[in-house]
Amino acid sequence: MAELVFFSGTMDCGKSTLALQMDHNHRARQRVGLIFTKLDRMGESVLSSRLGLSMEAHEVSDDLDFWDVVVEHLTHGQRADYLICDEAQFFTAVQIEQLARIVDELGIDVTCFGITADFRTELFPGSKRLFELADRVQVLQVAALCWCGARATHNARIIDGVMVVEGEQVVVGDTAAASDSLVEYEVLCRRHYMRRMNSHAARLASATPDVLPFDLDVCAVPPRD
Ligand SMILES: Nc1ncnc2c1ncn2[C@@H]1O[C@H](COP(=O)(O)OP(=O)(O)O)[C@@H](O)[C@H]1O
Ligand SMILES: Cc1cn([C@H]2C[C@H](O)[C@@H](COP(=O)(O)O)O2)c(=O)[nH]c1=O
């Protein structure tokens, strides 16, 4: 039976890489897929991974109707065995409902990839609807890590080295290590997200131990997996 599956996690945990691998494995067995993305860091109509791989994809605009696109595709005698949707957090709730209908009425597997929550810890609209409708929500096996070594669970937005918790929900960008723009992101464990302690703040604190003496033992927490 066809399924709607949501691979969800923080930024930089390997979602796009998995999307590309999944498509590769299907294509290697002559299965035909439709690939969608929205607002990829590398530009329009591309699905890209930080490992350097990328592929062409249909860019999803707010008014794109997945049902119409797939039905038209099939009506023209073309095959669609599966859909892969990256950056699905940016899709609208209605678009997620269209994807669920494609699974249920056309029997086509739909696999979505996206971050769960924004830099304020609020669910994105697409992710929220996926949590509500998906047959399965899967966490990726390889964890992105906080600077302290714990599993990263939250996405922080950093401006000029400082973590912010107010602003527009959508600002396309990259993690600090790879970014040369003003706005960048850093993944953190919940403890350090709540304390607003990104790696820059932690470096400052360890250089001036009198300011924040409470917590240096926490920084030595070993990775959990
Ligand atoms: N040079 C590298 N060598 C090995 N793995 C890397 C390298 N650069 C990035 N990665 C892996 O790629 C992951 C990010 O993959 P990506 O698919 O772009 O993430 P996401 O789509 O979840 O933001 C990192 O967590 C890391 O595991
Ligand atoms: C936390 C957060 C992220 N974004 C943007 C930043 C990136 O362009 C994407 C996530 O891409 P990735 O492949 O998962 O790294 O989302 C945003 O717009 N708002 C946020 O709060």
From TrEMBL:
Enzyme class: transferase
Entry keyword set: ATP-binding, DNA synthesis, Kinase, Nucleotide-binding, Transferase
Keyword ATP-binding included in the entry's annotation: yes
Protein name: Thymidine kinase
Source organism per UniProt: Knoellia aerolata DSM 18566
GO cellular component: cytosol
Molecular-function annotations in GO: ATP binding; thymidine kinase activity
Reaction catalyzed: thymidine + ATP = dTMP + ADP + H(+)
